[in-house]
Design goal:
Blueprint: H1 3-17, E1 24-29, E2 32-38, H2 41-44, H3 51-59, H4 64-67, E3 70-74, H5 80-89, E4 93-96, H6 106-111, E5 115-118, H7 122-134, H8 136-143
Length: 145
């Protein structure tokens, strides 16, 4: 398995262990993780800390050129909010662990020139499906349903 997707999965596990939603993400620049995060909406009482947003926040303020050279790895297809951040910062490539339990704004991102790669990870699918089955109301809250 790709080591960067593995790092995103580790972040998702960390979020689940903290009592949150198991979605993790890492931001990679020139073969090095520069930001990592996981969904912390529950843990922090946040309205915006999805895994991708947390990874971007933890990367800190960066020059625009750095974002344009990054790949974002995420365990789940990006929602509209996270897709907007990807487009805003010009991140050109996103590796997605899975999109069966939730299909985000993949077509929207592609129309903006973002290259998407689906890893189709059974581990990501199983972790999300188990969470959704056990916590349907929390999951619906997270995706705005």
């Amino acid at each position: 398995m790709d080591p960067f997707l593995s790092a995103a999965i580790d972040e998702a596990r960390r979020g689940l262990a903290e009592g949150g939603i198991p979605i993790g993400s890492v931001l990679v620049h020139q073969g090095r993780i520069i930001g990592r995060g996981h969904n912390r909406r529950v843990q922090r009482g946040s309205s915006i800390l999805h895994g991708e947003m947390d990874a971007l926040e933890n990367a800190g303020r960066l020059p625009a050129q750095v974002y344009r050279e990054c790949t974002l790895y995420t365990t789940l297809s990006p929602c509209p909010m996270c897709s907007g951040a990807i487009a805003l910062y010009g991140i050109p490539r996103v590796v997605i662990g899975e999109h069966e339990t939730f299909m985000g704004e993949e077509d929207w991102l592609r129309r903006r020139g973002v290259v998407l790669q689906l890893a189709d990870s059974s581990e990501c699918k199983a972790m999300m499906q188990a969470f959704i089955d056990a916590n349907p109301s929390l999951w619906n809250e997270d995706i705005g349903a």
